[in-house]
Amino acid sequence: MVRLLALVISIGLQIVAASIALRFMRLTKYRLSWVLLSLAFTFMAARKIIHLIELTRGQETMEMAILDEWIGAFISILIFSGVILIRELFFSLKKADIDRLRSERRVLHAIINTEENERKRFAKDLHDDLGPLLSTVKMSITALSARANDPVDKDILDNTSHVVNEAIATIKDISNTLSPHMLTNFGLESATSSFIKKAERVSKVKFSLNSNIGKLRFNSDIEAVIYRSVCELINNSLKHAEAANISVELNLHGNFIILQYNDDGKGFDASVLNTEDNMGMGLSNIHTRVKSVNGIFVLDSRNNEGMHCLIKINISD
Fold it and tell me: Whole-model pTM?
């Protein structure tokens, strides 16, 4: 009775396993490895059914014993062949994962390229269209100022000229921020140094820049990613960190360009940044940009211990 119960349970479980395996064949696109394993499960269930028939009949014939042995051998062949061939399935899954990552990287790359192109277009429109208009206004005001005899009118024209000069300077700054000509014309180290000098003029923070890049040029996408990341990190430190010192190290080691950024500000609990959603817009943008060029972005910070950031990008990819 106990043996009969065990056989019934075994048959039930093996039939369920065989049916599930057969359903999975379509998901695996009928790969031979899974077909063989599914057949093995099916024959295992059939073998147990034969055992149940023999047990209920109360006798075992030589023909049924031989059949049972051959079914067992056939099952072993199916399992052995399926296990050998199933590597193909794992390779296929790995390839699909690699293709997915490549596709995701291409999408990110396209988005960031579109953003950079729009920045350049907008900067060009400001510089080429609005800039000349303001310059013309300035010339007109200067001409009027020369003819003005009333001191009040002259003061008004002088103030207006000053406002126009401020507007022209602001447009130049905005245009350069959107599409930095230093980065385009002189490279990453020069552009980074120029931005740091501007940041020093508007803050009391002491900056240091160490770099072995010099005038070396890299892929424009990589240069844009590093430069935008430095700008975003500096802006974050100036707005939130209350730092006294900021250091930027930008070096080329072999095939890798490495950015190390440190500030001695008030820091924060970096453990809350375990997901991209919690990073905030600025850090999330850095993460997305670095990811688009297959780079590594690591950020570490603790309360009252400043912030430390590492970006590492393979320039040979």
Answer: 0.61
Give me the helices (H) in the chain, please. Answer: 2-27, 32-57, 62-125, 131-147, 151-178, 181-186, 188-201, 220-236, 280-292
Give the CA distances from residue 159 to residues 93, 135, 142, 150, 152, in Å, rounded to whole numbers and listed in that order.
Answer: 69, 15, 11, 14, 11
Cα(209)–Cα(248) distance, integer angstroms: 5
Residue 7: pLDDT band with limits 50, 70, 90 = low
Largest CA distance in the chain: 129
**Higher-pLDDT residue of 62, 298:** 298
Burial class (CB in 10 A: 0-12, 13-18, 19+), 41: buried
The four Cα atoms 276, 278, 284, 287 give a dihedral, to 10 degrees, of -40
Q: What average pLDDT does range 279-287 have in this prediction? A: 77
Q: How far is CA 248 from the centre of its chain?
A: 22
In the structure encoding, which two tokens stand for residue 263, read together?
């500030």
Asked whether the beta carbons of 241 and 263 are under 8 A apart, the reply is yes
Q: Tell me 202's DSSP state.
A: T
**Stretch 92-98: mean pLDDT:** 80
Cross-strand pairs, 245: 206
Tell me, what's the pLDDT at 278? 55
- The Cα–Cα gap between 181 and 294 comes to 25
Contacts of 261 (CB under 8 A, 6+ apart): 230, 233, 246, 247, 248, 249, 307, 308, 309, 310, 311
